[in-house]
């Protein structure tokens, strides 16, 4: 009984914390989201308005972890270091030829895939509309069997890649605001070193335990602020909208009684 009570308390804390952060993200910058900077570099993020806000919180586990909470993408970084977070987003619902190929690899029957091809390049604004179209196409029984796989590979638009370069002093949570309707499709972390330019950049933002060197909206490109260490394996957090589970990557869990403090992101001053 005590364990069950602990679980409910933990779930409640998580819901409240992420709910507050989500509301703050929407209230602060949702009408005027940060725009990615323009640059000649091919590595500069594309897709205006991807990151609406940024927060820092106290870390909650000794593992790399990730949690998707509606309007925010939460990443637990378990140790000190300088990191490059790369991620893509998806929005809307729909199918592409690539989606069909992915589902074929995952074992969806050919007869189901043949029917699904009639939806390729069609777009649906909501999940409800999309599921209704799928039901009329393949039937409720087949949809029940393959709904999770179909939804995993169903998205109308892809945004990114987006980049965030941070120097972390100790175990920390990174809260990255998403645009309404966006979901994280893929995400990975590379470890390396900040360059000399990063240390003197006027774009750098100090959050105490975390310094942000580059994010969409900053000048230049991430490669001006960070050098990947190729000897350290990349940590995959999310792959095609599936949280990766391994000895090094776990779903984010809040321990009992944890408190998470957030700090509002201050936009850098515009150079005249």
TrEMBL record:
Domain of life: Bacteria
Protein name (Swiss-Prot/TrEMBL): Lipoprotein
Protein source organism: Candidatus Moduliflexus flocculans
């Amino acid at each position: 009984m005590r364990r069950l009570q602990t679980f409910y308390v933990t779930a409640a804390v998580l819901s409240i914390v992420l709910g507050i952060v989500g509301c703050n993200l929407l209230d602060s910058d949702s009408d005027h989201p940060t725009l990615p900077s323009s640059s000649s570099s091919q590595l500069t993020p594309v897709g205006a308005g991807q990151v609406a806000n940024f927060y820092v919180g106290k870390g909650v586990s000794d593992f790399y972890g990730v949690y998707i909470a509606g309007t925010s993408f939460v990443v637990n970084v378990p140790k000190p270091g300088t990191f490059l977070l790369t991620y893509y987003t998806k929005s809307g619902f729909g199918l592409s030829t690539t989606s069909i190929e992915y589902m074929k690899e995952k074992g969806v029957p050919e007869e189901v895939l043949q029917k699904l091809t009639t939806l390729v390049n069609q777009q649906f604004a909501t999940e409800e509309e999309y599921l209704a179209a799928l039901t009329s196409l393949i039937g409720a029984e087949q949809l029940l069997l393959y709904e999770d796989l179909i939804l995993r590979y169903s998205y109308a638009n892809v945004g990114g890649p987006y980049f965030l370069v941070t120097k972390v002093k100790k175990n920390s949570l990174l809260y990255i605001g998403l645009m309404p309707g966006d979901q994280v499709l893929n995400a990975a972390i590379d470890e390396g070193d900040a360059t000399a330019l990063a240390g003197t950049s006027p774009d750098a933002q100090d959050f105490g335990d975390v310094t942000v060197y580059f994010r969409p909206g900053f000048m230049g490109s991430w490669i001006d602020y960070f050098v990947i260490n190729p000897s350290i394996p990349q940590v995959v957090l999310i792959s095609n909208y599936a949280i990766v589970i391994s000895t090094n990557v776990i779903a984010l869990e809040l321990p009992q009684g944890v408190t998470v403090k957030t700090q509002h992101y201050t936009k850098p001053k515009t150079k005249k």
